[in-house]
Structure formats: structure tokens, C-alpha cells
Design goal:
By secondary structure, this protein is α+β, with helices and mostly antiparallel strands. Helices cover 27% and strands 37% of the residues. The protein has two helices and four strands. The protein is globular, with a radius of gyration of 11 Å.
């Protein structure tokens, strides 16, 4: 298993429950070992096994929750 960490800019979070929802949902994806979302910073840091989950799946999952998301360089 080869893991990598990616940072995503997340917009549309408005309360403390938003990061919890994002993290709980992302950590249910196969291959995501850790997700840490910060409300004030507007970002989500995700550690994943790219052979099981790719960046587009992470983006689609966050977007499906109603947030705008983009990969940060």
C-alpha cells in the first residue's frame, strides 16, 4: 500500500458540523486512511491509497455533500 496526502480547498462550510460530516464521509471511502478538515482554514487534508481511491472520488464525495472543492497545489 502506497499512501499520499493531498490538500483540498473546501468552500461552503458554515458550522462545526461541516468538517465532521466531510471527515466521516471521506473516511468511509476505501483507501482513505485519514481525513482532517478545518472550518476556519477552509481545507481538508486527506491521506489515501491511490490504488483504491483517486482524487476525483474525493472531489465527487465532497461535492456530493454540497460543498465546492478544488485540489490545492
Amino acid at each position: 500500500m502506497s499512501t499520499s496526502t493531498h490538500v483540498f480547498r473546501v468552500e461552503g462550510m458554515h458550522c462545526g458540523s461541516c468538517p465532521l460530516l466531510i471527515d466521516d464521509t471521506l473516511e468511509d471511502l476505501p483507501g482513505v486512511s485519514r481525513s482532517h478538515t478545518e472550518l476556519k482554514a477552509g481545507r481538508s487534508t486527506v491521506t489515501l491509497d491511490a490504488t483504491r481511491t483517486d482524487l476525483q472520488q474525493v472531489i465527487d464525495t465532497i461535492t456530493g455533500l454540497g460543498y465546492s472543492v478544488a485540489v490545492q497545489p
